[in-house]
Write a structure and sequence with these properties.
alpha/beta
């Protein structure tokens, strides 16, 4: 018999997407499924919306963060398997079934999925982000440095044995910290690219850059504490790090060239950016393959000339954050 799966969704002010998220979860092809939504102190009307849906509801009295919400859902779950997703994610109908099959009842295994390459919204920035995340999260599959909670499956006993998600760490990286703790504790991480969710980003230019800045900030702080700043880790990939370094090095070369009227600096920048294109050729091809040459050209421009500014600024901010807070806080998440 198929195992009972408890699908846990943390929600904070997710009124714009939570109904679509739960509807997608309930459309799962896995027959034995309970859907648990944990409202994390929302101040919009999302809790009222959730209570009208055919799912279990846990309402936390105050906001405690996504890690605490996930742990609360896990504690109240009845399933042998836990499947985590986010309130702005729309699971594909076969996502849970594929996750259960990949787990195969193994006790020391965690399984992850990724975003669909095609975003549910038509904006350029949503489409860019979906391809970007899908490419970098799956390019080493089935190996994974971490498994993201937009699609993460694990036996409930395994989660309990490893202590669940850390509730006192840095924001947004609880899945990375949990994945690393699982791996250090002897648990194997497996990425299955066929386990997918459509992510509703709702990005504008400003929101895309703000997301890049925020993730780079906390990831840099965490990585400095963990000693793996240069690791090739999912969306914190070496190709992205190369693109950021190439942007700032190119800016410095051009500034120096203008200051001393040295045309050779332009040649050096051209060589550096050619190397950048080569290092990121897989991503550029993913843009072309998914949405065609026109989209790939615009995405390449954005990725090479705009996106690295926000990532680099976030990394500098993260280094400052790491240097100004207690070590136990910097390394907790």
């Amino acid at each position: 018999m198929d195992p009972l799966v408890s699908l846990v969704i943390p929600n904070h002010n997710g009124a714009a997407t939570i109904e679509r998220c739960v509807a997608a979860a309930l459309a799962s092809r896995h027959a034995r499924l309970e859907v648990i939504v944990v409202d994390d102190g929302s101040v919009d009307d999302s809790l009222e919306r959730i209570r009208r849906l055919p799912c279990r509801v846990i309402a936390l009295p105050r906001r405690r963060g996504a890690a605490a919400a996930r742990n609360a859902g896990a504690r109240e779950s009845r399933g042998e398997v836990l499947f985590f997703t986010d309130a702005d994610c729309l699971l594909q109908p076969d996502a849970v079934t594929r996750a259960v099959a990949t787990l195969g009842g193994a006790p020391d295994l965690a399984v992850g999925g990724t975003y669909t390459q095609v975003a549910p919204e038509a904006s350029f920035f949503d489409r860019f982000q979906s391809v970007f995340v899908n490419h970098f999260e799956t390019r080493h599959a089935p190996h994974a440095d971490y498994l993201a909670t937009h699609a993460l499956a694990i036996a409930s006993a395994t989660l309990r044995r490893h202590g669940g998600f850390a509730e006192d760490g840095l924001p947004i990286l609880e899945d990375v910290e949990f994945s690393h703790r699982l791996r250090h504790g002897g648990c194997r991480l497996v990425m299955n690219p066929a386990i997918q969710a459509r992510h509703v980003f709702g990005y504008s230019l400003a929101r895309s850059l703000r997301n890049a800045y925020r993730k780079a900030r906390y990831w840099t702080c965490y990585s400095l504490g963990a000693g793996d700043l240069l690791a090739d880790s999912g969306t914190a990939s070496r190709p992205l790090k190369f693109a950021v370094g190439a942007w700032y090095a190119s800016a410095a070369l051009l500034a120096a060239g203008l200051a001393v009227a040295a045309p050779a600096s332009i040649v050096a920048v051209a060589v550096l950016q050619a190397a950048n294109a080569w290092a990121n050729r897989g991503l550029l091809e993913a843009f072309r393959r998914t949405h065609g040459f026109g989209f790939a050209a615009v995405s390449a421009f954005y990725y090479v000339l705009v996106y690295p500014v926000a990532v680099g600024a976030g990394a500098l901010s993260g280094a400052w954050l790491y240097g100004t807070q207690p070590r136990n806080k910097a390394t907790a998440a």
